[in-house]
Design goal:
219 residues; alpha+beta; 4-stranded antiparallel β-sheet; 4 strands; elongated
């Protein structure tokens, strides 16, 4: 019998075999509907993803072009400024270009990574020994402050600002371990230039400069 005819009949009039046929038909229809919904979802998902990825690739390409172009042009203008004597010869590359109408400007900043070599290990040993043996017994608050400057970050590196704070207390003690430790710490320091960062800025309605956001998460 035709399945459509079975679906139109009251369920109490169906035989066991006919009821099984109806149930199988419904299961098949549900499976087909689920498959249809799945295909529709995946098609819409893939279309949206394709659109977003294509745009992301375009933005990435333009961002690379922008950085290369910015570096080339800022290098050109730094050389011209050096020739004109309007920038110190010992400049390390960070400077700002201002448009004639004073509404836009470009800043170039050095992106550096402070590092400490193997001498810092010995330096920390000496400084810790002095602080624990001497300062901790005399002035607990001072000890906590100074030892706090030597805490390393998650990468196991010393924090530049904290080390500078520690060095500002260099003349506080005359202990040989303190003096030698700070000397080694200073000698172990170097600053690695990773590259340059660029800020593109424009004036807002209040006349203040604000950055043109190129960082996706900052928008």
């Amino acid at each position: 019998m035709n399945i459509n005819e079975l679906l139109e009949r009251p369920i109490n009039e169906l035989s066991a075999e006919e009821m099984e046929a109806v149930l199988n038909h419904k299961r098949k229809m549900e499976t087909e509907q689920q498959e249809k919904e799945k295909r529709a979802y995946e098609a819409e998902r893939d279309s949206d993803m394709g659109e977003l990825i294509a745009l992301a690739l375009e933005v990435e390409s333009k961002s690379c072009l922008l950085k290369k172009l910015a570096h080339a042009k800022m290098e050109k203008h730094q050389e011209k400024l050096n020739e004109y004597g309007k920038i110190r010869s010992n400049s390390k590359g960070g400077f700002t270009l201002m448009h004639s109408d004073k509404t836009i400007r470009i800043k170039r900043r050095r992106d550096t990574q402070p590092t400490w070599d193997e001498r810092s290990t010995k330096a920390l040993e000496l400084i810790h020994a002095f602080l624990y043996d001497t300062v901790k017994k005399r002035d607990r608050d001072l000890f906590e402050m100074l030892i706090g400057f030597l805490v390393k970050n998650k990468k196991g590196d010393l924090d530049y600002a904290s080390v500078m704070n520690l060095l500002s207390h260099e003349t506080r003690f005359d202990d040989p371990r303190w003096k030698e430790g700070l000397r080694l710490l200073k000698q172990s320091y170097s600053n690695f230039l990773k590259g340059y960062q660029y800020d593109f800025e424009k004036q807002n309605e209040e006349g203040k400069f604000e950055r043109i956001e190129l960082n996706f998460s900052a928008l």
